[in-house]
Task: structure prediction
Amino acid sequence: MAKSLTGVLIVNQGTTDSPKTADVRKYLREFLMDGRIIDIPALPRFLLVNGIIAPFRAPKSAKEYAKLWKERGSPLKFIGEDVRDMLQESLGKDYKVVLGMRYQSPSLEEALKELKEANAAKIIVIPLFPQYASATTGSVSAKVNEIVSKWQIIPSITHVNQFLEHPKFIEAFAENGRKMMAEKEYDHVIFSYHGVPERHIKKGSVGDQCQLGSCCEAFHERNRYCYRAQCFHTTRLLVKALGLKEGEYSTAFQSRLGKDPWVQPYIDEELKKLPGKGIKKVLAYSPAFIADCLETTLEVGEEFKEEFIEAGGEEWDLVPSLNTSSTWVECLEDLVRTA
Result:
């Protein structure tokens, strides 16, 4: 009897089909209509997204996407395609690796259909988010389950819902940082993570565990899926790998929207304090993203650099994301083989 095929679905957030305003508006509507992103009732969410956010935000966002766009298209997409091909080569013929995006193309429907047609006996789903959050990994898992629930034959499905502690994930990011630290001396390393509303943390709290404070200083079973605790734990692991000492680093959160409180500290506030402490040269990490995109290249790499210089800083450099790092692909291979 022939060996059965294992399907591997790697998933990232998604990107627009082009930097044109119409395509950006289309992406924003799908993205923001997800109830795990904007967690308010469907009707108010529809009115907010389609009446205010998408129409007014799309033109500005389109200009930002245009800055990133390459000959091959969106970096998030073609980096994902390259990683898919590298992982396929590493795993061999007993596996079929496909790439899907939670929003836009290639859609999860298309990717799962490919695995269905290949007659995969088992599917391993790896959302490409190191730390679990309801708005990212949770949304991917929910959508995959929704799609597959309509199939006549449902294969065995395994969801890899976080990998921040995997040694090769940490090492891949540490390698990138060491290269830059070997070429230049920095006063401080700041680890910037994408933010989420505080209410998302509280909704997922085990009892009264999550207090959005010192409770994140330890990582254990009760706060294992607290996004903020996961981010601080990722920092501790990277700090150990990089050999940093207390006072040489900090953790903060970026990309907050609206008036509701998001997880803190806010990086745009923290970076302005650094020059006053004598910190003039900063190396920035963004370990919530495995591929360089709008939030890393433009937000952390350019926008925050500009704010830091205006506040009196001298140098602000961004550590590249994992992208097509061979160590990162080895991490993915190990995640698949041990799933």
Observations:
- The chain has two domains: 6-163+326-338, 167-318.
- The chain is about 45% helix and 15% strand.
